Amino acid sequence: MAVSLPGAAPAPPAARGGVDGLLIVALVACAGVIVRALAFTPVDAMQGPAQKILYLHAPAAIVGLYFASGLVAISSLMYLWLKDPRLDRIAESSAEIAVVFLSIVLATGPLWGKTAWGTWWVWDARLTSTLFFWFLFVAYLVLRGAIEEPQARARLSAVMGGLATLLVPFIHLTVYLFRTMHPTPVVLKPSAPSMSGQMLSTFGMSTMAFILLFAALLRLRVRWATLRDANLERQSV
Amino acid sequence: MTIASRPAVRVPGFLADSWRIARKDLLIEFRTRSAFLAAAVFAVLSVAIFRFTWDATAVPAIDLAPPVLWVIFTFSGLLGLNRSFGVELADRAMDAMLASPMSREAVFAGKALANLVFVALVQALTIPAIALFFDLPAGAWWWSVVGVAVLAMIGLTAVGTLFAAVASNTRLAEMLLPMLALPFFVPVVIPAAQATALLLAGRPVSDVASWIKMLVAFDLVFVAACTVAFPYTLDE
Fold first, then answer.
1. Which residues of chain A have a CB within 8 Å of the CB of B183?
2. Which of A135, A136, A156 lies at the smallest CB-CB distance from B233?
3. What is the value of ipTM here, to two decimals?
4. Which pTM was predicted?
5. 3-class secondary structure, B6
6. Which of B106, B198, B107, B218 is CA-nearest to residue B153?
């Protein structure tokens, strides 16, 4: 279903106190995938049960780093061009969801790292970049919270979103160069284990479930923002 | 006036306008010396504090000096940047500046130039202070480290000036600036610190070429991007 837009659209279910169908489907899919990962997918011979964190960690990273961050970048840049408040609401909603998913990534990563690498954290290029992207999104949300006037908030946060888009390759290159110039005795990133077909299909399903969850959360959050802005407009008239 | 209807940017006029803004800011700073004194004292005090938290038997001075230099550089830079748009809030001076026929890009370039001079002066005190207190060996590293510092300063002041403008429009003002700007300083501070460490260790400039390229690329991209983005940070 398309993201609801302001104007002629009837009151969305959230406004009527109804239940959001897409969110329920997404949550059921996530729960199903977790059950499949825990009970019906073989345990990794080398890494043991800890490997199952992958089914939560990697899809959250894919959604947080590519889908949510990409959407913030695109809608920020488009906002600077078109000045459409809907784009600002998409950026706002997507950034919040990005923080949630990146927090999952940063919380589950060390849990796996402790068993696989023997340490909670290493300054590996991927870990470092993810941490800085998380900081960027948190700063973005704090910036939004610190500006009262909706238009100024949209403009300034779009400036930050646009510049952050340019920053991504620099952060990635710098931390990559930093790591490769300082090799450590620990094998930071084990080569991808050849997954069994069952593991691969669980991983694929998990990724799909997380994308669905992202879509459902985004739709709900954008609707909420639309209602909030409409309400503010009504109050100010 | 909307962004689209502003007069086209003329190069000689642009440079003259930027210089006018930079001169104004530096003149205010020279007459009050408040921010410069604060930043300079902060920088030298930090060097002294680092000296007392450091176990000379565990970490050699030559290994500790680069991180100390770049930590101080980052934070003393932030001290100066906060003031950049703070001075324009009094008596709504910013409105007067925007009503003038200067292009907004020239205002940004002027502000950034003044900040660059400010940061350079603080750095001109910090590098000798570190060399003195950490008893660094005299050598050819001196000029190459200054070169790295200049490259880092350009990127840092461009991004810092833009976020100072953003932060001055918010409720939190100076509290927000470090949070916004520090993630953007990462691709400046890591290459600068790495290059400084290698140069201090007596390695030739060719060994730090990849870090220097990174700094140059950051400067080019972010000076251009921040100049373009600056008009969007102002109230229409």
1. 132, 135-136, 139, 164, 167, 171
2. A156
3. 0.85
4. 0.86
5. coil
6. B218
